[in-house]
């Protein structure tokens, strides 16, 4: 996994609430057996018309946002299907941070496994960053995971919370399977105990 | 001892370790796998030269991509689908996990196969790379969807790194009115909580109306816990649960059954246990329900009218306007005036035998509206066989429904069953998102009985008026 320390970039505003993972990556593109290459289909049905032409109004098609690394989104981002293709597509497009008031649980967890930082902030802060994001390429936002701070285009600072273990894995780009493997003896002990207690499982 | 909830009990029974910062390692009893969210996970294992830690606890079933037409054994036309299905078969065989191929009568939607084969048992932890894993909570098991990285983690270690969720109780008191079903309960709850109302929580459903439901109905309720944002939905096991499980191929037998039963009877929330969030709904306040918009929270009783965007507040105003435009609906129109082109009956929400019995009751001796495209897709080959044996399949076909083979089908339209742009569908599935059933397709979520009624009349219909 790519390490995450600091990201400075343009933020795309997506104020729509309940942006679901079907929107982020429609099912048509779930037929892949790879993790890579999904960026071109990110938000496919919002980004392209039926003939495959770009829809000019869509935020990521606007010149200012084509290289956005951050999305500031409406409430409950990533709801619906558990598909990890959603963070794969975001990452492949170049998105490293999503900021919202809330995220669906599975999507939130999937982001951390792929080097994407989802940040939960109060409505007021998300509103402020949404306004900043509306200013396009003139408004660069900087996110520092180590210090857990966001610096807005006008120098304003917002701090955010993040689970200590998830932060540790992101900063070091750690594969958590490897970490869990180090606990193999504990898993084996649990299995032995449980098999004795619940032999029917 | 402190009073604990059912969720607390199952959680505690599966804790392998807790780190100082509270990060927990949870043991997983059953891992269900399908073809869409697993290939990258198996690829990860291969690259790292890791085996599946507990192949005997891992079950693979192809369901999302499989065609449901009778000719499917002649091969899958779509190349990408075929590659994905072939990959599942190869992975299942190479890693030695249980596997139900497409030509096996036990094949079906993974969340229907699990309970049917007795893989899902009370008190277990069950995961799958699919959000509707919540279904298995109907058995009093802690069941939830995971991403592909977590699928790989479970394959390699049989554990998950988890933070504990909060406890939420949803109580449905009293008795349901005639014509109101489990689907209406679960949709009504989401209408009340919103799609983020359960975020960060595990919901335990309880109350007389939940107790009165069959196991099939309970699965329908828990299935859509995820649409309310919850990590999982749970219902405490009782005699109905034990009766359903007994005799299933992978359920315990003999002395093991007795030991299991004694344990399962301890799986309930203590009287004084505290919930972080509580919602109480009177069953008699629930009406046959339908969605009008593009979020499962856009729920109204069938007696209602299409709302105005201005009826909502905050970010929902824009979302509601977008939904009205997408759905091609005029605010103020009666929901029962909405014309339907297609009816889809099936999915892990409503693809079980009881659902088809309901449909058969409504359409017996009648014909679906002329020009209506209507299909019934069983949740498993065994459901299909049972429906044929009970004469249900014949009733449905006589009425004009297509009678399909098992799979996810038009619930998410990864196989050839899709809506055309603008095509409007009454569906018994679980999501009405934009494009969910096909780009530009318009979905109204309903119960099986309501879907059957719409198939007969050609418009959304109050089942109580038939």
What general outline of chain A do the C-alpha atoms trace?
globular
- SSE series of chain A: EHHEHEHEHEEEHHH
Major sheet attributes of chain A: 7 strands, mixed
Give me the count of strands of chain B.
19
Mean pLDDT of chain A: 96
What is the alpha-carbon Rg of chain A in Å?
19 Å
- List the chains of the largest interface with their residue counts: A-B, 55 and 80 residues
Q: Span from first to last CA of chain B? A: 54 Å
Which CATH class of chain A applies here? Alpha Beta
Percent strand of chain B equals 15-25%
- Assign the CATH architecture of chain A: Alpha-Beta Barrel
**Total domain modules of chain B:** 3
| CATH class category name of the largest domain in chain B | Alpha Beta
Per DSSP, the total helix count of chain A is 8
Query: How do the strands line up in the largest sheet of chain A?
Result: 4-3-2-1-5-6-7
Helix content of chain A: 25-40%
Number of structural domains of chain A: 1
Q: Helical stretch count of chain B?
A: 16
- List the uncertain runs of chain A: none
What is the CA-atom radius of gyration of chain B, in angstroms? 21 Å
Which stretches of chain B are poorly predicted, pLDDT < 50 over at least 5 residues? none
Structure characterization notes:
- The complex is a heterodimer of chains A (201) and B (466).
- In chain A, 33% of the residues lie in helices and 16% in strands.
- With 201 residues, chain A is α/β, with parallel strands linked by helices.
- Chain A has one domain (6-174): Alpha-Beta Barrel (Aconitase, domain 4).
- In chain A, strand 5 and strand 6 (149-151) form a beta hairpin.
- Chain A starts with 5 loop residues before the first strand and ends with a helix.
- Chain B is 32% helix and 16% strand.
- In chain B, the strands form 5 sheets. Chain B has a 5-stranded parallel β-sheet, sandwiched between helices. In chain B, strands 17-16-15-18-19 form a 5-stranded parallel β-sheet, covered by helices on one side. In chain B, strands 11-10-9-12 form a 4-stranded parallel β-sheet.
- In chain B, helix 2 (39-48) crosses helix 5 and helix 13 packs parallel to helix 16 (448-457).
- The N and C termini of chain B lie far apart (54 Å).
- Chains A and B meet through helix 4, helix 7 and helix 8 of A and helix 2, helix 3, helix 5, helix 10 and helix 11 of B.
